[in-house]
Amino acid sequence: MKRALIIALREVRTYLKDKADLAFSLLLPVATFALIYGAFGGTGLFHGTAYIVNEDTNGIYAEKLVEKIGQEQSLDVELLSRQDAENKLDRSDLNIVLLIPSGFSDKLISDQPGELTFLQRGNGGQEGQIVASIIRGVVSGLNQEFTVLDQSNQLLTGKDIAPEKIAFTTQKFLEKEQQSPLIEVKETAIGSKPNMVNQFLPGIITMYVLFAINVGTTAIVEERRKGTLERLLTTHLSLGELFFGKFMASALRGFIQTFILLALSYAVFRIFTPISFLECLLIALLFTMACSTLGLVIASVSRTQDSATWIGVTFTMAMTMFGGTFFTISKGTALYALSKLSINTYANDAFKAIITEGGHISDLGVEIGVIAGVAIVGLVVSRLLFKAVPRGK
Amino acid sequence: MSEAFLAVKEIHKSFNGQKAVNGISFTIDKGEIFGLLGPNGAGKTTVIRILSTVLEADAGDVTVGGYSLRKNPAAVRNLVGVCPQDLALYEELSALDNLIFFGQLEGLSGREAKSQAISHLSLMGLTERGKGKISKFSGGMKRRINLAIALMGNPKLLFLDEPTVGIDPQSRNNIFETIRSLRDKGMTVLYTTHYMEEADRLCDRIAIMDGGKFVAMDTPQGLKRQIGDPDKVTLEDVFLKLTGRSLRD
Ligand SMILES: Nc1ncnc2c1ncn2[C@@H]1O[C@H](COP(=O)(O)OP(=O)(O)OP(=O)(O)O)[C@@H](O)[C@H]1O
Ligand SMILES: [Mg+2]
Q1: Whose CA is nearest to atom 8 of ligand 1?
Q2: Are A10 and B93 inside 8 Å of each other by CB?
Q3: What is the pLDDT of residue A160?
Q4: Whether A12 contacts chain B with CB within 8 A
Q5: How far apart are CA A306 and CA A142, in angstroms?
Q6: Fewer CB atoms inside 10 Å of the end CB: C or N, chain A?
Q7: Average pLDDT, chain B
Q8: pLDDT given at position A191
Q9: What is the pLDDT of residues B222-240, one digit of tens each?
Q10: Do A204 and A132 belong to one domain?
């Protein structure tokens, strides 16, 4: 056992010394996580910029309009000169710009209809259309205010009430109505965004762990290539110790990567409880161990680096496909029967049960049993195979 | 008569029906340096791989220090050290780490392995370079480390498969001196080489192998006497006479 540890430590040491390999293998899970985060993380709400050309300088209603647009949560406002706006539209830097013409406020003050224009390329683009429709909402709110103000004025003129007072009171009613509108639109979230993570994370973790297979497959070929395999076989090291050492090294490496991925998901997406996190780690550890031994089985029959890599990749692909990592396999199909042959199926089911369905390890007897069984059988079989396959140079 | 430390009786080995070793018998006494010469493909490395338990012979018996290779390979491994023909080193590790690693696998404690490693490095004249990565070493330095690893765990019997191939006279001389001083301390050595004058100077007895068989086995003097005046002919003359001049694969 001590010698197996020496083998594993040597492997870890080599791994730590190869800075490029080390950086790559540690950054890979971080990068994968960043991709998941980019795809499923964040708020997901629309946010855009309203580009406005205000030619109604010092017009109070133009200012009011710009201010109201700026109060919209999903919009930022950027003011441009007309020349600038036209240039940018020309170059397709912008797709849509709101133009407030000069005299806009004066017209409104003198009870004439005001006019606003969208300068746009084509239909203004998807984002442009959303921005425009938000602006239209703001404008129609303003329209209502003017209408109400106008009507109150008409009703109350000649009734001995000061026009300032009419304006003030109307304004107060309008504000009250805004705070508690007659028709209110509410948002109720059905299923939060991070559920996407719940859906995909099990598959991603499973696939990740499968990398351990490929680390394992080269374990023996590497020694053969360096010429150290025969030297190892002339020491006190037994075959069992050699394989167990290789197994520990590749399982450790695979587990560290999965750990990074799971820990980041834990910290950022908050989809785990401390218990479910530990349970997932345990499954990940078992699964990495199983994959490492599968890697060793391939290693024990591979004569060259090429054949090891080739068999490893083919095997990994098959496991991933049949394991329902990327698509759901429906019951009763031929693929469903095949999927039972893939260790991914069991790992995937186990992760899903815990992450998506809030289950516990204690309910996963079959899955855990299969994964642990593969780990043990793989370790034994790889050793036997290695002994059985004739040794060449 | 001194006792035979290694006794090989009628070993055979075929690869895909091709005889690589075809019924070889010999003994090596304790403290003897035994040379195994032969053209490319004669079967020298195959013999060493069998004797060092890496390869199983199809037939025949081998005992090392009284232990049967078949019945007790672990005990045999305990007694032998192997310096393989092809370098067997971890390039990314330092010389010291390579030595300590193999020393520990030979059953030494970390501390013992380290102290042996340091003394073997000094034997090879590489004390200063112990911490250096093997990948940065010259061919001669790598060869010397390859040999130093074989010495880890203080074996009683050394198999040296062309330990001096492709290196300069200085490195070769160092290896040479090392082998001699080991022999003086009682080490038994099986040595293969393609350098005839090297074998002449170093070996107590020599076997010439061709096509999986021994074609001659004697002291260097005795071999030379077979074809003429031992002071006038060289071992190379003997070798060419016995194995012919045709090229081998
Ligand atoms: N693993 C193997 N599979 C098939 N044939 C082999 C194998 N190992 C050795 N042989 C064959 O056995 C014969 C003896 O090879 P071996 O390496 O023992 O020769 P050698 O005397 O060490 O030669 P060299 O001086 O070139 O090192 C050769 O014909 C070689 O091709
Ligand atoms: Mg050889």
Answers
A1: A393
A2: yes
A3: 75
A4: no
A5: 72
A6: N
A7: 92
A8: 43
A9: 999 988 888 888 888 888 8
A10: no
* Radius of gyration for chain A, computed over Cα atoms and rounded to the nearest angstrom: 34
* pLDDT at residue B16 is higher than 80: yes
Can you give the pLDDT at residue A188?
61
CA separation for the pair B129, A192 (Å, rounded) = 61
Q: Provide the 3-class DSSP secondary structure of residue A99.
A: strand
- Work out how many domains chain A is built from and give that number: 2
Model pTM score: 0.74
Q: Single out the residue in A124, A157, A179 at which a domain terminates.
A: A179
Q: Which residues of chain A have pLDDT under 70?
A: 40-45, 181, 184-199, 324-328, 390-393
pLDDT at res. A392: 46
Torsion of Cα atoms, A165 then A168 then A172 then A175, to 10° = 160
Token digits of residue B210: 């061709």
Q: Is B80 in Cβ contact with A234 (below 8 Å)? A: yes
The verdict on a CB contact (< 8 Å) between B101 and A6 is: yes
> A74 with A167, same domain?
yes
- Span between the terminal Cα atoms of chain A, in Å: 28
Look at ligand 1, atom 31, and give the residue with the nearest C-alpha: B41
Q: How many residues does chain A have?
A: 393
Is A125 in the same domain as A148? yes
The CATH number linked to A166 is 3.40.1710
Last residue of a domain, one of A145, A179, A213: A179
- Asked, for residue A393, whether it belongs to a domain, the answer is no
Can you tell me the ipTM of this complex? 0.90
Q: Are residues A80 and A220 in the same domain?
A: no
The nearest CA of chain B is from the CA of A231 a distance in Å of 7
Q: Beta strands of A44-93 (E only): which ranges?
A: 48-54, 75-80
Helices vs strands, H then E, count in chain A? 15, 4
Secondary structure of residue B169 in the 3-state scheme: helix
Assess whether A107 and A199 both reside in one domain: no
Cα B11 to Cα B47: distance, rounded to the nearest angstrom: 9
Q: Are A345 and A339 in contact (CB under 8 A)?
A: yes
The minimum CA-CA distance between B154 and chain A, rounded to whole Å, is 12
Scan for tokens 């990565």, then name that residue.
B133
Beta partners for residue A48, in sequence order: A75
A16 touches chain B (CB under 8 A): no
What's the pLDDT score for residue A140? 86
Q: Which domain holds residue A104?
A: 48-179
In terms of CA atoms, which chain A residue is nearest residue B46?
A393
B24 vs A144: which has the higher pLDDT: B24
**CA B61/CA B68 separation, integer angstroms:** 8
B43 lines ligand 1 (CB under 6 A): yes
A64 alpha-carbon distance from chain centroid: 40
- Residues A220, A174, single domain; the answer is no
CB contact under 8 A, B54 and A6: no
| Higher per-residue confidence, A110 vs B129 | B129
